[in-house]
Each structure stands twice: as structure tokens, then as C-alpha cells.
Design brief:
The complex is a heterodimer of chains A (about 180) and B (about 675). Chain A is mainly α and about 180 residues long. Chain A contains nine helices and no strands. Classes of the chains: A mainly alpha (about 180), B alpha+beta (about 675).
Chain lengths: ~180, ~675
């Protein structure tokens, strides 16, 4: 039997170091994967995860169990990702990052490479808002949870998801014509 | 929706597994930060007592919870508060952070030893006017990690320089008036700190405290301190004067000036303790009514051929700031000089640290000159510094070289700027103190000016049982690395503590000159767990007390009317000197005791030392010197220059002349 996240998080917020250790260990991989979706490169994702880990203890003190721990954690991650992006000042850098990452993967099987290229291009083509939204939705978050994490209404999320789908379809068609 | 499913599948496939090492490091970092937060829960927590309406309370809590390092932020906060009261919107800005706490807010409330991960490259400034909340919030809410540091503050947005606050220019007069209603009790405590945070020029950082004050013997008869064999302060003073500037008063540690010079004190006899104390009492040059008690310690000088093999790990800062000709190139030259002094049994390894730590030279016998020289010439400056990563590797390398009967030492060569990693000298010194117990000592060689972090250098060397020296010229490198090679590298006594008890029947008042940063508590003297300075082979250490005899017109304090009766101790003694030291490799201290009497004659060298003591106090702006000035210091030093085979004393007189011309 495992203690649930909420109980662990509240204990950690109250100063229980062991609870904090268990909690972070449990969620680290998922957090990293989420960061990867938000940033697009392993390097950036590692830095972002580290930033979050460093700040999490202080942040956790404000955790009041009003939302699920994962929701709360993702909100922290999204805010941290925003901070980073703002520092990078332009989207261009991130786009370059995707390219670098891509270059490193050329040795992988051709079909897979094709899919990945499409993936990189697709994610790149999206605005930050859409990408954040997709990062959540692709993590099996419901629209309601995504709305909670990103601090917008559920309707906005649904609209963003359909926008993202439209953009992806357009991209696919464009590629198919080539 | 196939595209979408494709995307999900592709994304899942593309997502890499987290690197195991990074994962462990992140978890450790989080745990460390978690633990360091626990101690300061009350100070850091930022809870408005009455919720959203508690604006005043919030402001006061915020100001009260500022640490001294946060003072720079406080001044900005006052401006920000001013802006907020001028603008009706301001109050809403103030509330916004409470509603939506962000990471930077959480970080800002973090305690001192909170570790902030490093960004890889300089971050662009966020544009002003980006978002009103962002302008106010990070600065209004807490602490600046390091006011002059690189922008590597992790999640925090680059804290903007104060002048970047757009409102500052137009609102200059507002802080005072607008904050008139505030509880002002925090202001006096906050404002003086600002000067410490913004050094008047350059980014140098010196460790010192205010001068030792006069003690009244009947109230505080015992004086205790640790020896100090560092010489860095003298080199900093010299470097300043050579550039036609008086050194900052805090850069002057009088005992380091005195101990810079080799003295010819009586050496211990073979079979005795590893060092011998010599006490002399003489007339104070700057006060006819007081006396100087001159305590000299001479370490034994074993023949170089007899010394145990040395294992030296050079930890070399190759960050971009080391590229100046007086840093890395000077270090390389110094290194070659030193190599000639090593013997085939000695081993040398080199670890460099910049962005990441790396071993440049695996442990190599000192006889393999060509390999070592090749490694040295291959060192190049570039990247940023991470002091701790390199330190860890250097200690690990030293551990692999260690063998019974050998002496291990890490020699850190840097311009003093650990510009990535731990800024807090306390956290870094904890690490070094841990390693000291493993038997590997640490010496620090400082290079260059303008970036010098003297406080960190001192903290590291003192905790690593080592010596801090500042190298500004090749001749200084010669002195530190060649002439004193054995001493600097080969300890003969550990944790050397000095305690003097003055006799109130003879001495009304006393004052220890220098050693401000080395003071120990009285009870620490007998406590072997308390660390103190090491004495190297052939080192001399000098401590000087100025004492005022009972009945002397120079006595500054009035005698008490209801004084207790003097004790029946032998009244001819001025005081009693006790020294404690640990023989190398031993955990139990030994005691040396000797009475101090007024008829002990000073050596010729003691006169020169007193001239340097006077010089140091002149540079520090001491109140105790009266009319005595540079003229007198110069003539006293000149009269007692002695043999001076290396020309150090002649140079000191030149420096006195320079200081004289600059202070007129």
C-alpha cells in the first residue's frame, strides 16, 4: 500500500523530509517527461527539471491540497518553463534547440526519423500556448485538469486543442503535397 | 483523430528517459534545499496575517524578513512601495503575488544557504515594462542571491539593477515621503548594509572585522587567538600601493603584514617541541608610556631532504577571468619555479576547473618534468568557474595518491572568484572542513586584482588548515612557492593556539594588534575540537600586544574605586603565555607555558616587526598611534632592516614611502 500523493505533499509541506523525498522520487520521471514536452530538448528539459527541483521545497510550503498534487506540480513546471522562455527572449533559440536535437537523432531508423521530424516540426510550428496545452493533453490530462494547470478556462483549452489539431492537419497536408 | 494519436505516440517514443546521474543530483539538490528550509521556517514564511486586506502587515513582514543580503533589494522595495502608493493600481500589484505565488517569489524567500542551480549562459534582460507585476514583484519580495553575480539565478528572472526600475528616475523623492507611515524600525538596520553589498570600486571582497579594542585587564585578563601564517594581506596592500592607491582599510590584516617577513628567531633544539616561543618586552614606538609584548614563534626547519614525500594536487581556475597576464600565465611561470624544488618521490596532479571540472594531469612523479610541463602549458582560460565541482575532484585525486607517511595537499590557484557554485563562504568552508579531517590540507594562491574574493580565500585556507597567499609578481611566487616551499607545504604542528593571561597587578590595559579574524573564545583554548591555524616547517609567527603598565599616564580607563583586592600571584610577571599545538597526525594537544616578565629583551627583529605593526595600523586608520606617523615608521623600519637577504624589508620601506605620499 502506498500513501497517496496528497498526504505525502501535505506532510512535506509541514516539514517531513522523508515524505518529500518519496514524493519527488515518485514524480520525477513524469516531471522530466513533461518538461521535455514543454521545452523540446533533453538539455533544456534537464535544466528545467533541475530548476524546479531546486525551488520545489520553498514552493511546496504554499501547497494547500486545493488541487491534486500532480496538477499543482505541473502548474509549477509550466510557470518555470514560462520563466525560462521569457529569459530566452525569443522563440528562435528554442527552435534551434529542436534542430540540434534532431540532428543528433539521424542515426535512428528512417521511418522513425521521419515521424520524429514531423513531430519536431509540428511542435515547433505551434505557439507557446498551444504547445503548453498539448504538453498537458499528451500527458493524459483531461481538458479540465489542463485548464487548471494553465490557469485558463476549460473552453479555452478545448479551443486550443482544436486549433492545435487544425495546425497539425495543415502541416501534414503541406508535407503530403511536397 | 489520427494525427493527434500519431503525435501522442511519437511524443511518447521521443521522450528520453531522464539521465540517472542528473536524476540523483536533482533529487539530492531538492532534499538539500528542503532541509535547509526547515531551520528558518519562521523567518522565511511570508503569510499575511489578515489575508488580502493586510497590506501594511505584508509590507512590514516583508521588510522584517529581509536578510542583510536582501538589503539591496530593500532599497528598491522602498522605491517600489513608493510607486505603489502613488498609483492607485499599486495596491493591486502588491496583492498579486500573494494570489499567484510564483517560483521566483518562493526562491526570494529562501534562506541563505539555499542552492540555486546555474544557467549555462548569460540570460537576456527581460524588457522593461514586460509586465507590471514582474517589475515589482521579484524585487519587492525578498532577497537577492548575490548582488554582483552573474545572472545565474535559476528560475529567478534576472534581478534587474536598481537603475533599471523605470519609475526610479521620476519617483526619486517618493520613497521617503510615501513610506513615512511605515514602521521605520527596520530602516537603520537595513541601510548600513548597502555599503557592504555595493563595494566602492571593483568587485573585491575582503575579510576583516573592526580592530581589536582595548581590554581592561581586571575585567578580561585572558586573550586567546589562533596563529595566522597567511600573507595574502601584505600582497594586496603592496599591489594597491604600487597602483598608487591606498588599500581599503578592510584589506589590511596587521598580523599578516607582520608575518609576511622572515624573522630570525631562536630555533627549537632537536628533540624539543616542533617550535619555540620567544617573548620580548620593549618600549612602544608610538607611545612612551606603554610597552609592547612581542611573542615570536619559530618553527623548526628540517632539512629539505628529510621531509616526507609530498602529494600535491593543483586545482587551477581556468575560467575566462584568469586569462590576464598576471593570472594564469604568471601561475604557469610560478609553477615551473616550484617544480625545480620537488624531489622524485613527490607526486603532482593537476585538476582544472571552469564550467566543468577535469583532470589535466594524472598523478605523476615530480621527476617526469616533461609530462608535467606539457600539462601546464596546455592550460587555457575559458568558461565560467565552478569552485566546488573542481574541489571535489581535487580531493578525490588527493585521496588516490595518499599513502602512509606522505603529506597530501590541494593547492587552489584562482583569482578568487567562484562565480558559479557556492557563493556563500560558509557553505564552501563546511565542505573543506569536512575534507580537512581526511588529512588533506588546502592552500590557496590568489592571483590578479579586481575580481579578488579575499573573504572566500581566507575562509577556505583557514578551514583547510592551509595558507592563503596572494601572488602578484613572479618574485612573490618565488617567495611563496620556492623559498618557503617546505613551510607552505609541510606542516609541523596543527591547531596552534595562543593564550595570554595578563597580571592585573602589573598591566592595567592591553590590546592585541591584529588577529581580529583569528580570535578564539577563552574556553576554546583547551578544547581540542576547536580548529586553529597550522604552523609549517620554518614558519615564524609574531604576535604583538600593546600593554599599559599600572599607574602609567597612558592608561585610558580610570581605575575602579571599588576594585577587588589583587590576588597573591607573583607580582613581577606581566603575564603568562600558554601555547597549545597538536603534533602532526595527533589529535591530542600539547601545552607549552612560559611567564612573561618585563626584563625580557626583544630581538632586533622584534623592532622591525613593531615598525610593520605601526605601518599596518596607520593603513587601517588606528586611533592608538597619536602623532606617530609614516616618518617614524620608516625610520624605525630602516634602522632595523637587518640582513634582508631577499630584499623584502627594503621593499616594505618603499611601500611605507608610497603610502606616506598617498595619504598626504
Amino acid at each position: 500500500m502506498t500513501t497517496d500523493d496528497q498526504a505525502l505533499a501535505l506532510a512535506a509541506a509541514g516539514g517531513d523530509g522523508q515524505a518529500f523525498g518519496v514524493l519527488l522520487d515518485r514524480h520525477y520521471d513524469r516531471l522530466f517527461a513533461f518538461c521535455y514536452r514543454l521545452t523540446g530538448t533533453q538539455h533544456e528539459a534537464e535544466d528545467l527539471t533541475q530548476d524546479i527541483c531546486a525551488a520545489l521545497p520553498a514552493k511546496l510550503r504554499g501547497f494547500q491540497a486545493r488541487s491534486k498534487f500532480t496538477t499543482w506540480l505541473y502548474r509549477v513546471a509550466v510557470n518555470a518553463a514560462h520563466d525560462r522562455r521569457r529569459k530566452h527572449a525569443s522563440h528562435a533559440r528554442a527552435a534551434t534547440g529542436w534542430g540540434d536535437w534532431e540532428a543528433n537523432r539521424t542515426a535512428v531508423a528512417a521511418e522513425q526519423t521521419e515521424t520524429l521530424t514531423w513531430l519536431q516540426n509540428a511542435m515547433n510550428a505551434l505557439s507557446d500556448d498551444l504547445r503548453d496545452t498539448l504538453a498537458c493533453v499528451l500527458d493524459d490530462m483531461t481538458h479540465a485538469q489542463t485548464a487548471d494547470i494553465l490557469g485558463v478556462s476549460e473552453g479555452t483549452i478545448s479551443w486550443r486543442v482544436s486549433e492545435a489539431k487544425k495546425a497539425l492537419r495543415a502541416l501534414r497536408e503541406q508535407e503530403d503535397q511536397l | 483523430m489520427t494525427d493527434f494519436d500519431d503525435l501522442k505516440t511519437a511524443m511518447d517514443a521521443a521522450t528520453p528517459r531522464p539521465d540517472a546521474g542528473k536524476r540523483a543530483a536533482d533529487l539530492a539538490l531538492a532534499r538539500k534545499n528542503f532541509d535547509s528550509l526547515q531551520g528558518s521556517a519562521d523567518a522565511a514564511r511570508h503569510t499575511p496575517v489578515t489575508g488580502q486586506s493586510g497590506l501594511w502587515t505584508g509590507v512590514r513582514t516583508m521588510l522584517n524578513s529581509l536578510t542583510s543580503k536582501g538589503a539591496i533589494t530593500a532599497s528598491t522595495a522602498l522605491v517600489a512601495v513608493g510607486v505603489m502608493f502613488v498609483s492607485p493600481m499599486g495596491q493591486d500589484w502588491m496583492r498579486a503575488p500573494a494570489l499567484q505565488p510564483s517560483l521566483e517569489h518562493a526562491l526570494a524567500a529562501a534562506p541563505e544557504n539555499f542552492v540555486i542551480p546555474q544557467a549555462d549562459e548569460a540570460d537576456e534582460q527581460i524588457t522593461a515594462g514586460d509586465d507590471a507585476r514582474d517589475l515589482i514583484q521579484p524585487r519587492a519580495s525578498g532577497r537577492v542571491i548575490d548582488p554582483q553575480s552573474d545572472p545565474t539565478v535559476g528560475l529567478m528572472e534576472t534581478p534587474m539593477a536598481m537603475t533599471d526600475v523605470p519609475a526610479l528616475a521620476t519617483q526619486k523623492s517618493t520613497p521617503r515621503s510615501a513610506s513615512a507611515g511605515l514602521d521605520y524600525s527596520v530602516a537603520p538596520q537595513v541601510l548600513p548594509d548597502i555599503e557592504q553589498i555595493i563595494p566602492p570600486s571593483g568587485t573585491e571582497d575582503f575579510a576583516n572585522t573592526s580592530q581589536n579594542s582595548l581590554k581592561i585587564t581586571s575585567e578580561e585578563p585572558v586573550s586567546t587567538f589562533s596563529i595566522d601564517v597567511d600573507t595574502a594581506s601584505y600582497s594586496v596592500v603592496r599591489s594597491s600601493l604600487m597602483r598608487w592607491q591606498l588599500p581599503p582599510a578592510d584589506a589590511v590584516r596587521v598580523e599578516e603584514l607582520i608575518n609576511y617577513f622572515p624573522y630570525d628567531y631562536p630555533a627549537p633544539d632537536a628533540g624539543d617541541a616542533p617550535f619555540r616561543p620567544t617573548v620580548g618586552v620593549m618600549q612602544t614606538p608610538w607611545n612612551p608610556d606603554t610597552q609592547l609584548v612581542h611573542i615570536a614563534i619559530q618553527g623548526q626547519m628540517p632539512a629539505t631532504a628529510d621531509r616526507p614525500p609530498l602529494n600535491l594536487v593543483f586545482l587551477i581556475d581556468t575560467s575566462g577571468s584568469m586569462a590576464d597576464p598576471n593570472k594564469l600565465p604568471l601561475l604557469k611561470q610560478s609553477f615551473r619555479l616550484m617544480l625545480d624544488q620537488l624531489r622524485p618521490q613527490d607526486q603532482v596532479a593537476i585538476v582544472e576547473y571552469a564550467g566543468s571540472a577535469g583532470q589535466v594531469l594524472a598523478p605523476t612523479s615530480a621527476s617526469d618534468r616533461s609530462t608535467i610541463l606539457q600539462a601546464i602549458s596546455g592550460l587555457g582560460a575559458g568558461g565560467s568557474t565552478n569552485g566546488q565541482g573542481g574541489l571535489e575532484q581535487a580531493y578525490a585525486t588527493a585521496a588516490t595518491m595518499a599513502e602512509e607517511g606522505e603529506i597530501g595537499r590541494v593547492i587552489l590557484a584562482t583569482d578568487g572568484d567562484f562565480n558559479v557554485g557556492i557563493h556563500d563562504p560558509d557553505a564552501l568552508t563546511d565542505f573543506i572542513a569536512d575534507k580537512r579531517d581526511s588529512g588533506t590540507y588546502l592552500s590557496v594562491l590568489g592571483f590578479g586584482r579586481g575580481n579578488l574574493n579575499d573573504a572566500t580565500m581566507q575562509a577556505l585556507a583557514q578551514n583547510g588548515n592551509g595558507q592563503a597567499a596572494y601572488i602578484d609578481t613572479l618574485s612573490e611566487a618565488q617567495k611563496v612557492l620556492v623559498d618557503q616551499l617546505t613551510g607552505a607545504l609541510f606542516p609541523i604542528a596543527g591547531d596552534v593556539k595562543v593564550q595570554v593571561e595578563f597580571n592585573p597587578a602589573q598591566v592595567a590595559e592591553y590590546r592585541l594588534i591584529g588577529y581580529e579574524t583569528r580570535a578564539l573564545r577563552r574556553e576554546d583554548f583547551n578544547n581540542d575540537a576547536v580548529d586553529a591555524g597550522e604552523l609549517g616547517a620554518g614558519h615564524t609567527v609574531t604576535a604583538i600586544y600593546e600593554v599599559t603598565p599600572v599607574g602609567s599616564p597612558a592608561q585610558l580607563s580610570d581605575p575602579l574605586r571599588y576594585d577587588t583586592a589583587p590576588t597573591a600571584a607573583p607580582t613581577s610577571e606581566l603575564g603568562y603565555l600558554k601555547l597549545r599545538y597538536k603534533p602532526v597526525g595527533d589529535d591530542t594537544s600539547q601545552l607549552i607555558e612560559t611567564p612573561i616578565t618585563a626584563d625580557m629583551d626583544p630581538t632586533q627583529d622584534a623592532q622591525f616587526a613593531s615598525a610593520i605593526a605601526g605601518f599596518g595600523q596607520l593603513l587601517r586608520g588606528s586611533d592608538y598611534l597619536g602623532e606617530w606617523g609614516y616618518d617614524q615608521a620608516i625610520s624605525l623600519a630602516n634602522a632595523h632592516r637587518g640582513d634582508d637577504p631577499f630584499g623584502y624589508r627594503t621593499q616594505a620601506v618603499q611601500l611605507m614611502r608610497l603610502a606616506q605620499s598617498l595619504s598626504n
